[in-house]
Amino acid sequence: MTATLAERAAELRKKLEDASYRYHVLDAPDIPDAEYDRMLRELDELEAAHPELALPGSPTRRVGSAPSGRFAEVRHAIPMLSLGNAFSDEEVQDFVRRIDETLDRGELVFSAEPKLDGLAISLRYEQGVFVQGATRGDGASGEDVTANLRTLKAIPLQLRGSGWPEVLEVRGEVYMPRADFEKYNEHARLHGGKVLANPRNGAAGSLRQLDPAVTAQRPLSFFAYGIGEVAGGALPATHSATLALLREWGFPVSDLATVVQGVEGLLAYFRRIGAARDGLPFDIDGVVYKLDDYAGQRELGFVSRAPRWAIAHKFPAQEQMTVLESIEVNVGRTGAVTPWALMKPVQVGGVTVTRATLHNADHVARLDVRNGDTVIVRRAGDVIPEVVQVVLDQRPSGTQPWSMPTRCPVCGAEVVREEGAAVWRCSGELSCPAQRVQAVFHFASRRAMDIDGLGERYIESLAEFGYLQDVSDLYRLTLDDLLEMKRRADERDGTVPETVKAGKVATKWADNLIEAIDRSRDTTLARFLFALGIEHVGESTAKALAQWFGDLELIRRLPWPLFKRVPDIGGEVARALGHFLDQPGNQQVIDRLLARGVRITDARAPNPKLAEALDLATLLVDLEIPKITPVRAGQLGGAFADAQALLDAPVHNLVTAGLPAETAGALVAWLEIEANAGLLLRAAQAQADLRARLPERGEQAAGPLEGKTVVLTGTLASMGRDEAKEKLEALGAKAAGSVSKKTSFVVAGSEAGSKLAKAEELGIEVWDEAKLLAFLVEHA
DNA sequence: ATGCCTCGAGTTCA
DNA sequence: CTCGAGGCAT
What DSSP state is assigned to residue A606? Predict the structure, then answer.
């Protein structure tokens, strides 16, 4: 029993020492802080419970690691201690209770401040002059980095004011502001410099440069938070008063540092800083509480490595270590094969994470993650977990680099990658069940046909049991089909509910689903086009198509080059759309959807601006015919009335139209290819069609927001964001996803974040909810 | 060609 | 939200 505990203690000590060395000496940590803290606590508890295991050299007895020797060693007259940690309200309550029991003096006053994620240093002033600066090192002695610290503008070389002690040591944190860190890295990337991993490492690495000139180039800053040795003078009786004095003497002190009372005060402060955290210009990993009066601090004293009168209250770890059990792949709607990591569940930033996307094969290769690896996961951008790094030391032996499967795990078709592209795709297209299921899921999604209650599981089962070949089958599902599907699915999974065994069948969900499918039959052209899941045709492009052509039948017949007449649609998107419509299978699906009751309720006349599509010269340029430059196309446009006339023309007419023989030859050769001739023929028909339908110019009334681009952000009280978007679009506005200088105005609800900040930065008009509502009422 | 600016597509958890 | 890539102005 004791033997195993002793082994565990030895193992923990070894790991902690290694990690500490990497962190403090090499500036290259290989495990997250949270993991370090966890191991240190385990060892601490072990040693507390079994004092015979506690050794003098244990990591629990000191703060960091010995200096690397490149800088002179500085012995701290008063050790630079680290703090105990609290991760929960209970631990903070315990901290306060312990002080209460010792001091017995009623409501306690604490100084509270953010805990910066930087590098702790000590600055020594004699007669008010900066004489020496040192890193914390192992707490007892650190490295002399005076020359480097002198380059920091935030550190006074001579104290301001008066009344300072003859000898004064100021402690604080050197850090790199986030924005400066980004800027620095951007510059480094552009000029091939060293890219810093994160602000903390950036600060640590910068201070440990042997050449102060290098340090001077780094955007470092400093906050004072305490004092060390004081001689030949006196300081106030409280920490807060001392901070105020330090500020007068010329030190930056965080203006978030404040005084609070009792446990409630501490916890309220923690929440306030936590809420403000993302908006702060620097990284913090928690807050620090210190008993404010020095007399009380002296009375409380220290436990082995930390003061009893202070504690660090840490935010939930944003990074954690866990084991990657396997790398799986997903097949998306477009056939994209995406690798993702299945991991042992771990708490990160307050939620349990088990899976994280690995984006694509290149990303996996860059990280070199393998099955069984120990990995560091982080929740990036607030929510989405990502695998940051592999802990190579912990890699099991005999692993192989991961490689993309050559066959689709779902349908067995070959997995291929387009030249130069990042994604690998399953080549099975609609014969791949995964792609079919995803296609239906997309079709039913809220922004497409909006079929409520049709989730992925139901779709999978319906497809599996043969009720669903393509999306048009949704519209011939019966109540019995659904119930039968459910029965077979339950049977297969062995999850037959007790109620069913008792002879009762729940049908409410199926009634609702049938009803939802029926409701979705009436839809808009934009939703319908989006729902089809055409490559490159997302919500925005679908809206543009609907707005410009107005009618499904017209779009179905259009030769692809004409799609390029719509703003923001270029060759790539037009070709993808044409390719989709050229497949008889797709046209049949559309036919069946219409035959089974799907109705487009907002058909209208084409946009008058499409008149330019009637121009033969424009059309010829769009067709991308070899040798037909815009100039040549113009000549042909002048010589022939329309595409039909060109098709009818004998070859020699091309030459008489002013075309050089070589160019005319290229055109004739192009036309000899049957598909091309067909394209031109269809273009001729489409032109005739359009000509018949186009309304007179200016017939369509322009909305009050015509030509305006708006961006919505934050939460609106009176309506959903989508609803607001629709209303603005109805008035002619275009709703964009991000703020740029082209944005006309931003509508900001409550808790608006980065987009509002960007708008303010660019000086773009911002509407609040009241202004939006007033505008909508006025133009209803 | 280059550099914005958008859009599309894929994604996590409660 | 973040990446990759298309569209378009320069």
Answer: P
CA→C1' distance for A569 and C8 (Å): 10
**Average pLDDT of the segment spanning A457-483:** 92
For strand A765-767 and strand A745-748, is the pairing parallel, antiparallel, or unpaired? parallel
Task: For residue A345, give the nucleotide whose C1' atom is nearest its CA.
Answer: B13
Average of pLDDT values for A498-511? 76
Rounded CA gap, A84 and A92, in Å? 11
A568 strand B contact, CB < 7 Å: yes
What is the C-alpha separation between A419 and A408, in angstroms, rounded? 19
Q: What is the per-residue burial (b if ≥16 Cβ within 10 Å, else e) of A623-651? A: bebeebeeebbbbbbebbebbbebeeeee
pTM above threshold 0.70:
no
Output the CA torsion sign for A56, A58, A64, A70.
Answer: positive
Contact A79, A61 (CB under 8 A): no
Query: What angle (nearest 5°) sits at the alpha carbon of residue A427, between those of residues A422 and A433?
Result: 115
Looking across all nucleic acid strands, the nucleotide with the smallest C1' to CA distance from residue A422 is C4
Q: Is the pLDDT of residue A508 over 70?
A: yes
Q: How far apart are CA A728 and CA A772, in angstroms?
A: 9
Active site residue A115: yes
- Which residue has the least CA–C1' distance to nucleotide B13? A351
Q: d(Cα A12, Cα A41) in Å, to the nearest integer?
A: 10
A105 phi and psi, to 5 degrees? Answer: -140, 25
Range A570-597 burial, b when 16+ CB lie within 10 A, else e: eeebbbbbbebbeeeebeebbebbbeee
Sign of the C-alpha dihedral computed for residues A168, A173, A178 and A182 taken in this order:
positive
User: Residue A156: CA atoms inside 13 Å, Cβ hemisphere, count?
Assistant: 22
DSSP string, A318-330: SEEEEEEEEEEEE
Distance A114 CA to B12 C1' (A): 29
Report the alpha-carbon distance of residue A683 to residue A670 in Å, rounded: 15
Which residue is nearest to the C1' sugar atom of B4, using CA?
A: A740
Report the distance separating Cα A83 and Cα A574, nearest Å.
62
What's the pLDDT tens digit per position in A64-100?
333 444 678 888 888 888 888 887 788 888 889 888 8
Residue A434 has pLDDT above 80, yes or no: yes
A569 nearest nt, CA–C1': C7
**CA of A542 and C1' of C9: distance in angstroms?**
24
Beta-sheet pairing, A709-713 with A745-748: parallel
A419 touches strand C (CB under 7 A): no
A62 pLDDT exceeds 80? Answer: no
- Tell me how far apart the alpha carbons of residues A581 and A287 are, in angstroms, rounded to a whole number: 60
d(CA A248, CA A159): 9
Are A488 and A465 within 8 A, CB to CB?
A: yes
Q: What's the rounded Cα separation, in Å, for the pair A680 and A620?
A: 9
Q: Whole-number Å distance, CA A111 to C1' B10?
A: 46
**A273-287, A418-432, A489-503: which has the minimum mean pLDDT?**
A489-503
Name which residue leads in pLDDT, A556 or A26.
A556
User: Confidence class of residue A195 from pLDDT cuts 50, 70 and 90?
Assistant: low
Would you say the C-beta of A320 is within 7 Å of strand B? no
List CB contacts of A204: < 8 A, sequence separation 6 or more. A27, A118, A119
Assess whether A609 (CB) lies less than 7 A from strand C: no
DSSP helix/strand/coil, A413 = coil
Going by the DSSP 8-state scheme, the letter that residue A27 receives in this structure is S
CA angle (A229 as vertex; A60, A142 as ends), nearest 5? 50
Interacting residues of A621 by C-beta distance below 8 A, sequence separation 6+: A628, A630, A633
Cβ of residue A188 near strand C, that is under 7 Å? no
